Amino acid sequence: MALDAMGADGGVSVTVSGALSALKDHPGDLEVVLVGKPEAVEPELSRLGAPEEGISIKSASEVVRMTDAPSSVLRHKRDASIRVCFDLHRAGEVDAVVSAGNSGATMAVGMVVMGRAPEVDRPALASIFPGLLSPTVILDVGANVDCTASMLAQFGFMGSVYAREVLGAKSPLVGLLSIGEEGGKGNLVVRQAYEHLKASSLNFAGNVEGRDVFSSEVSVVVCDGFVGNVCLKLSEGLLSAYNQLVKNEVMRDLRGRAGAMLLKPAFKRLANRMDYENFGGAPLLGINGVAYICHGASSPKAIASAIGLAMESVNTQVDKRVSEGLAQYRGELLGEPETKSE
Amino acid sequence: MALDAMGADGGVSVTVSGALSALKDHPGDLEVVLVGKPEAVEPELSRLGAPEEGISIKSASEVVRMTDAPSSVLRHKRDASIRVCFDLHRAGEVDAVVSAGNSGATMAVGMVVMGRAPEVDRPALASIFPGLLSPTVILDVGANVDCTASMLAQFGFMGSVYAREVLGAKSPLVGLLSIGEEGGKGNLVVRQAYEHLKASSLNFAGNVEGRDVFSSEVSVVVCDGFVGNVCLKLSEGLLSAYNQLVKNEVMRDLRGRAGAMLLKPAFKRLANRMDYENFGGAPLLGINGVAYICHGASSPKAIASAIGLAMESVNTQVDKRVSEGLAQYRGELLGEPETKSE
C-alpha cells in the first residue's frame, strides 16, 4: 500500500500516524510505503515509534500543493509524492494508493498512470455516505462534471459492484438521483439515464430524491460529478453549521452546559457513527488499480480507515470486478446473453 | 391575499389556522381569501373561531392532488383551488397567492395565468435557507431543470433584487454554486455563467461550494433547478436523519434522558432558528404577480410566515423590481448605459 505522506492538511504527522494505526488494525497483513520527503517523514516516524516491520519510506522530492492544476502536476511534477505512489502501483510494487492530497491532481495522475480499466469509458470517484440504515455509495462526486446518460448508467454498474464486493451488500439497490420519484422527472440526461438503468440487469430502484440519500434502502446513488460534489460539500457544510448552532445554543446558560455534560457520551457515539472518518476515503473506480482519495482535512483515523477499505478492495479485486460489471452491461446493450457470470 | 385552503398535507385545519395566525400577526393590514370547498373550509373556520373581519371564503370545486401532472391540471381542472387563486390574482382581486399544494402544478398554473414579467425569460423558484450569518436565497430550486448560462445569470439578478427588497440585504453578494472556488471550475454551463456574472453589475462573489451555502456571506446562491432541488431535499433529509440519530443515541440511557431534559430550551431555540417554518414559503420570481409556494408538510406557522413574506413582496412591488433588474441586465449586455436606476 503506497500512502502519499505529504498530502494532508494536517501534515506528515497525520499521514504517518494514520499508517501506524492501520498497521495496528491489520497486524501482519499490511505493508505501508510512506511516499514523500525523507527529511520530513523520518523524524515523524521515529517520534511516533515505528514498528520494525510493515513500514518503509520511498523518497519523492516534490509536493503537490492544493492550488496546483492537475494538468501541470502531470506535466511538470514527475517526482511528486502522489506521482511516485502511482508509479509504484503501476510497477506492481504496491497494490493500492491512498492519498489525502489535492484530489483533482490525484484523480488525474491516477487515471493517466494506471489507465482506464477494460470496458470503462470514464472512471468515477465514489463517496461513501453513512446512512440511517446502511452506508450508501454515491457516484460520481467529482471526476466527471458533464455526463451523458450512458456514463450515468455505467456509474450504476460500477457502484453496484463496489457495494457488493467491498461493502457486502447482497444485491445492491441502485437509485438515480433526481427531483421526483417518477421516471419522467429530472433533467434531460437524467431522464435518458432512467431508461438505460431500467432496461439493465441492475437492481434498479428508480429515481431517488435528495431527502432519500440518508434514509432509503438504496446502496448506490447515481449522479453526475457536479451534482455529487455539490451534495458532498453541502452535507459537510450543513452538519458543521448545525453543530455550531447547537453548541452556541447549548453553551448559553448553566442549564445548557449541565445538559451538555450529561449528553457527552451520547454525542460521542453519534459522532462516531456519522463521522466520515469511518469511511475515510473515496474510491476512484474504473482505473487499472486501487486508489482511495481522502479528504484534505483527514484525521489519522480517516487515513487508517481508507487504508482498510483499500485492503478490502485489493482482496476482492474490485477493479477486475468493475470491468466485468461493465462488460456485462455492454453485453446487455448488444442484446447478447451475459458472457460473464459470478 | 389568496390562500389555497385545500393544498397542504395536513389538510384544511393547517391552512385555516395558518391564515388566522397571520391575521393576528398583521392586524388591520391583511385580508385573506380562503380558496377551496366551502363545505370543508367553513366548519374549520367556525371551529377555530373566525374573526369578524379580514377573512373570507371563495368557492372552488376541485382539488389538485399531489400526483396530478401540472399539464393536466392546467387543461382539465379549471375550478381547482390553486387555479381559482391565480384567477383572482390576475383579476386584481388579490395581491398575492400562497399555496402549500402540488408545487409543480402551482408553478405551472402561476406562470400560465399570470404570465412572465417583462424582460424575464424564465421564472424561477427561490428558496430561503436559514444560514449561520444571514438567510440565503438559493435559486432556481425546481422551476427549470435544464438551464443555459444566460438563464443562470438572470437568476442572479432576480435573486439579488429579492434579497435586497424583501430580505433587506444592502448590496447582496451573489455566488454561483460550483465545485471549486476558481472561475474555471464547474460544468460547461456553470463556467459560462461565471463569465456572464463576472461581467455584470452584480456584487458577484464568484463560485461558492456546497459547504459555503450555510456559512458564507453570500445572500444569493445561483444554480439550475435540478441542482437546487436536490440541495433543498438533501438538506431536509440530512437534518431529519441527523435528528433521528441524535434522538436514538440520547434516549438510550438515563443519563442521556436527563441531559435531554436540561437541553430542551436550547433545542427549542435552535429549532426555532433553523426551522424552515420561519421562511415558510418559496417565492416564484419572474411572474407578473406575487406567489409563494410552501412545503406540502407545512405547519400553520409556516403558512403564516409565507403570508408575511408575501405581504412584504407586495409592499416592495418585488415583481416590478425584478423586471427592472432584468432590464438593467439586458442593457448591460447591449453595452448601453443603465437605463433604470433605483
Can you give a write-up of this model?
- 2 copies of one chain form a homodimer.
- By secondary structure, chain A is an alpha/beta fold.
- Chain A folds into 2 domains: about 1-120 and about 285-305, Isopropylmalate Dehydrogenase (3-Layer(aba) Sandwich), CATH 3.40.718; about 125-275, 3-Layer(aba) Sandwich (Isopropylmalate Dehydrogenase), CATH 3.40.718.
- The first copy, chain A, is about 45% helix and about 15% strand.
- In chain A, helix 1 links the parallel strand 1 (about 1-5) and strand 2 (about 30-35).
- In chain A, helix 3 crosses helix 5 (about 105-115).
- The radius of gyration of chain A is 21 Å and the shape is globular.
- At the A-B interface, helix 8 and helix 9 of A face helix 8 and helix 9 of B.
- Chains A, B: It catalyses: a fatty acyl-[ACP] + phosphate = an acyl phosphate + holo-[ACP].
- Chains A, B: Catalyzes the reversible formation of acyl-phosphate (acyl-PO(4)) from acyl-[acyl-carrier-protein] (acyl-ACP). This enzyme utilizes acyl-ACP as fatty acyl donor, but not acyl-CoA.
- Chains A, B: It comes from Dethiosulfatarculus sandiegensis.
- Chains A, B: This is Phosphate acyltransferase.
- Count of helix runs of chain A: 11
Shape, principal axes of CA atoms of chain A? globular
Runs of chain A with pLDDT <50, length 5+?
337-342
Mean pLDDT of chain A: 88
Give me the Rg of chain A, rounded: 21 Å
Question: Considering the protein shown, what is the CATH homologous superfamily of the largest domain in chain A?
Answer: Isopropylmalate Dehydrogenase
